[in-house]
Specification:
Elements: H1 4-18, H2 48-54, E1 69-73, E2 79-84, E3 88-95, E4 98-104, E5 113-120, H3 134-146, E6 152-158, E7 168-178, E8 181-191, E9 195-203, H4 205-214, E10 216-219, H5 229-236, H6 238-244, H7 248-257, H8 264-281, H9 286-298, H10 300-311, H11 320-326, H12 332-348, H13 354-371, H14 376-393, H15 397-412, H16 422-435
Antiparallel strand pairs: 1-2, 2-10, 3-4, 4-5, 5-9, 6-7, 7-8, 8-9
Helix pairs in contact: 5-14, 7-13, 8-13, 9-13, 9-14, 10-12, 12-15, 13-14, 13-15, 15-16
Length: about 450
């Protein structure tokens, strides 16, 4: 049915959609990037000859041969799927503990394509606005995979058993259409206590039917997450990665590895990344990118926060209550900013809110890489510099994250004690990420950080 190129385009489109193209270069108050562009390419055209072969009935009455199967494990080691033997696997780590796996048929199954995803419930790739049920997750994944691909599916619910390690399992099947030709599609979705998983199959009727005979999905108890510098850097950017739906550097690097450098979607990502850097950071070129990253590492908002605290007498105040009383009559955002700076200074001294600055180095370097202002190596080298500074300034992930939250409260003028504030929302994200056994903060804070790219 659908030609081999569909899987590659789906992988590219889903990666672009996962990156959101609704992301921000630093944080929500400084502006959003426009929504994703559609790619109307017709490379997903379906071969009429293949479609006609779907309707051919076997005349043989011999006993059906068993379908050969194989296990495929996600690159982050969080889950495995059993499908047809001999598929070509392409992995895309999206963010810590979230990975996309594409499986592509070869030879006599050249039209068969699969996309699978696994992620914690608190950080589903693509940053959906709401995710209250497995049905919400299913609709979200279908949209990521199919929107703009040129393939449409008329879905019908299919009954499936719930596996022993799952809370729920649901499935859908349907007729896949592209430019008037038809094939088959099947979607399988699983919910565990803390994660969602999905498998989406499209291909000739015979291939999809064979795949369904052997299909299995199983979460793995112990993820094979790499304990290295890249994991550490991913932890530093984890909160914004969660809000954006992806790690910018990893996603762009994976797109480059997939040969997407000259695609229209990459052109859109470059344009929007450059706009984000310009609008939110005043960065217009490579020199400006490096200058901004160096400022974040060496001074950033941390220096501004300490100066504001000194201006309002916070460094001389005998206690927080006295400082708070002295701020009566000031605008609420000023009060919140001064008190956040005070809390950070009391907890971490001159390092105060520097985690807020250091956390964003990896993000802006990712957008710089996406915009073409730096290479992947340059982006990671500068991120490593920020990681080393973080290790010098803090003694644990808990301390780093608390400094980050104080920094966001200072920058936004909000109170972490206000449950309706975006500052409190970020605190809830930190708590969710901390609870993930193989999440972004699972690595040793004191690991040796070195260049591994």
């Amino acid at each position: 049915m659908v030609k081999k190129v569909v899987r590659k385009k789906w992988g590219l489109f889903m990666a672009a959609a996962v990156l959101g193209l609704t992301t921000t270069a630093c944080s929500v108050p400084e502006g959003m990037i426009p929504s994703k562009a559609q790619d109307s390419s017709s490379e997903e055209d379906v071969s009429k000859a293949e479609v006609e072969s779907n309707s051919e009935e076997e005349s043989s009455t011999t006993e059906e041969e068993p379908v050969a199967s194989q296990e495929y494990t996600s690159v982050d080691g969080t889950y495995k799927v059993t499908l047809l033997e001999g598929l070509v696997q392409t992995d895309m780590p999206i963010q810590a503990n979230s990975s996309m796996m594409a499986l592509d048929g070869e030879a006599d199954r050249k039209s068969f394509s699969v996309i699978s995803l696994g992620s914690p419930k608190g950080s589903v790739p693509g940053n959906p606005a709401t995710m209250e049920s497995l049905e919400d997750y299913m609709a979200h994944i279908e949209n990521l995979a199919l929107a703009g691909s040129g393939v449409t599916v008329e879905w019908e619910e299919v009954e499936v058993d719930t596996l022993e390690w799952a809370v729920r399992c649901i499935a859908q099947e349907g007729v896949a259409k592209s430019n008037g030709t038809k094939g088959q599609a099947y979607g399988y979705y699983m919910e565990t206590d803390d994660s969602y998983y999905s498998i989406l199959l499209v291909g000739r009727n015979s291939d999809v039917e064979d795949a369904r005979k052997v299909l299995a999905l199983e979460p793995l108890a112990t993820a094979q997450t790499a304990q290295g510098s890249k994991l550490f850097i991913g932890g530093m950017t984890a909160v914004l990665n969660t809000l954006n739906g992806a790690n910018v550097v990893d996603t762009i690097n994976a797109l480059e590895d997939m040969g997407a450098a000259e695609s229209s979607q990459m052109d859109t990502i470059r344009t929007q990344s450059a706009k984000a850097l310009s609008d939110s950071w005043g960065v217009e070129d490579a020199a400006g990118l490096m200058e901004r990253a160096d400022r974040l590492i060496n001074s950033g908002h941390n220096q501004d926060a300490l100066e504001l605290l000194k201006e309002y007498g916070g460094t001389q105040a005998p206690d927080r209550a006295t400082l708070e009383a002295s701020l009566e009559g000031e605008d609420q955002d000023i009060r919140n900013s001064v008190l956040a700076a005070y809390d950070a200074w009391m907890a971490f001294g001159d390092a105060a809110i520097s985690a807020w600055d250091l956390s964003r180095v990896g993000t802006i370097m990712g957008y710089g890489y996406a915009a073409g202002y730096c290479t992947y190596e340059e982006a990671m080298d500068k991120s490593l510099e920020a990681a080393l500074k973080a290790q010098e300034s803090f003694d644990s992930w808990d301390a780093f994250n608390q400094s980050y939250l104080y920094g966001y409260a200072y920058w936004s003028g909000e109170s972490l004690d206000d449950p309706d504030s975006t500052a409190a929302e970020r605190a809830r994200i930190v708590d969710t990420l901390k609870s993930q056994a193989n999440g972004p903060f699972s690595g040793d804070w004191n690991m040796v950080l070195e260049k591994e790219w």
